[in-house]
Amino acid sequence: MGKFWALVFLLVPVLGVACFVFAPVYQHWLPIDVSQEGHTIDHLFYFILWLTGVVFVGTEIALFWFMLRYDGAANRKVNYTHGSHSLEIIWTIIPAATLLFIAIYQMNAWADSKIRNPAAGPDGILGTADDMPPTVEVTARQFEWRLRYPGKNGILGDQDDVHVVNDLRLPVQEEILVDLKSADVLHSFFLPNLRVKQDAVPGMKIPVWFRATEKGSFDIVCAELCGWGHYKMKGRVTFVSRGEFDEWLDEKYREQTATVDSQVAQGDVE
Ligand SMILES: [Cu+2]
Fold first, then answer.
1. How far is the CA of 189 from the centre of ligand 1 (A)?
2. How far is the CA of 193 from the centre of ligand 1 (A)?
């Protein structure tokens, strides 16, 4: 019986590793990366996956071996100990040193994705809107993404702003700066194909930046459980050429002003 259980436990690392090996074959692995800096995030992901994977397999094999070797049926005498000081020190220091190493090793990646924004000066200090206007303002709300483009004059919050819902268009091969806000609760702006994820916090304006290297249409997902309709809080981000982007923005602006004008004509809007 002990041997049976030992083998069942051995299946855990075997099937666990098999899942990771076969997942890419069935396309259940990382979504395609279309961002300039996404490879840094993927590299960190793989580094940590390998590290924890090797420890996991090692631990499971040790578990299997002890179950097989020290099976209760063998009528052994148990030998109790009060623990080992050296062992305690070793298995405290190794994980602590590993965590410290990862913390230092990823510092640059963190700074590039969360601190040194494209509006930052040469000193790398967080820039302000004066240095580089945001390409778009994204406001998360239950349960959609409200998008506001600065329009022709590049200034947010005036008459020529363009308002869109869920359909985020952006120019490809350009540094994009997003001002992220929330109108109600915590949301999380997640662009899996750009390896970008940032919480949207009520009362805060958080800069998010990335650069897409390929044209195409990808998911915008809310990665924070934000209420009953969280599951349907999805948008699309579409990367097009600069020319196509300007044309699209013009068209949206015309549609918007046409609607306002006709409402004014009908007396709907003062
Ligand atoms: Cu949400």
1. 8
2. 18
